Amino acid sequence: MTRIGIKELKARLSEYVERARAGEMVVVTDRGKPVAELVPLSPTKLRLLELADAGELSWEGGGKPKGLRGIVIRGEPISDTIIRDRR
User: Fold this and answer.
1) CB proximity list for 66: less than 8 A, separation 6 or greater
2) pTM of the full predicted structure?
3) Which of 10, 17, 71, 83 is deepest in the core (most CB within 10 A)?
4) Which CATH number fits domain 2-40: 2.60.120.10, 3.30.70.260, 3.40.1620.10, 3.30.499.10?
5) Which sequence spans correspond to the domains of the chain?
6) In which order are the strands placed within the sheet that holds 2-5?
7) Residue 67 near residue 51 (C-beta atoms within 8 A)
8) Do residues 47 and 67 lie in contact, with contact meaning Cβ atoms separated by under 8 Å?
């Protein structure tokens, strides 16, 4: 983990973005106090961005992203299972 002040980050932004891309976490400080993190995107977030760029999903209007499928569970509803197990 690297700590870097805002002024230094502005001066060498490309270098720190490359370090984050390589997996390093960079903590950004303002007057010596941590205020933000520069971290690599997870594979899941990268895939979501790809789907959004391709127009296959969107977050417009709030709620769940359109284009993603929920988890399908076979058998009885989970709520029924929970109620049965509480007895």
Assistant:
1) 57, 58, 59, 60
2) 0.59
3) 17
4) 3.40.1620.10
5) 2-40
6) 2-5, 26-30, 33-38
7) yes
8) no
Residue 49 C-alpha from the chain's centroid: 10
Distances (CA, A) of 7 to 11, 18, 41, 60: 6, 18, 24, 35
pLDDT tens profile 35-55: 999 999 988 888 888 888 887
Per-residue pLDDT for 69 more than 70?
no
**How many whole angstroms from its chain centre is CA 82?**
31
Alpha helix ranges (H) inside the chain: 6-11, 13-21, 43-53, 78-86
| Strands 33-38 and 2-5, bridge-based pairing | unpaired
Report strand pairing: 2-5 vs 26-30. Answer: parallel
How far is C-alpha 50 from the geometric centre of its chain's CA atoms? 13
Neighbours of 16 (CB within 10 A): 19
